[in-house]
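Annotated sample (chain length 257).
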Amino acid sequence: MSTGGDPTTFLLVKNHESGKTNLRESEDDENSDGGERFRSHEPIGFVIEKIGFGAGQSLVMLASILGWLGDGMQPLLLSFILPSIKREWPDLSSGLDGIIGSSLFLGMLAGSFLFGTVADKIGRRNTLAITSILSVGFTIGGSFSPSPAVLLIFEILVGFGVGGSLPVCYTLFVEFIPVKRRGFYLALLAIAWSLGELIAAGIAWGVMAEYGWRRLLLISSVPTGSILLVLPFIPESPRFLLLKLVETARLIGPAIT
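Output written by the structure step:
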């Protein structure tokens, strides 16, 4: 049976053919593709190594880089827009000014804890879709804020999405990368954060003076919003799918016996 270049399909077919569910206790078997040894004690990494880095992983990398690039823009943008916010709302207190400046990080703290757990329940791809929608939606909402208090709420919620996106992008990407090239590709992912900061500075320089901080926030939502265009073409993490199969097998096994 041909599985193409989709690591998820390849992985599920291999485990179905071998009849393995308990990965830790199974022994090496001959698979059905010509007698090559299938290391069932660590099948996921082995299968991904065999597949290599192809078009499927490139799409996963694109989504992850867009996520980290967009997330990297958000903290720096706040420092750029605060002076304009003070001019628009001259009665803004210094205390609220400082809270707005740190609001994104408060949301990130909560989001990273929550969505790490959510990703283990509903999948990395689904969770990334949720965090992207939150980040984009609340960034756009913040650009229409009628008051500093409303902007503060929106920035906390943006941080909630950003904090969830960072670990999910990383996890999804890592679970598709062959181990031999993992360091190189993760370096590209880290560069995306710095690139996002540079892009934020460039956009702020080109947009703020003429169009204001609201337009800047709208433009900053584009990279994260682009993830939603890529996600339909990305399979779910093979590691997540296999772990869910193992969990299901353990639940229904006693009932069958």
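Annotation: The CA atoms of residues 7 and 48 lie 7 Å apart.
Annotation: The chain is about 75% helix and 0% strand.
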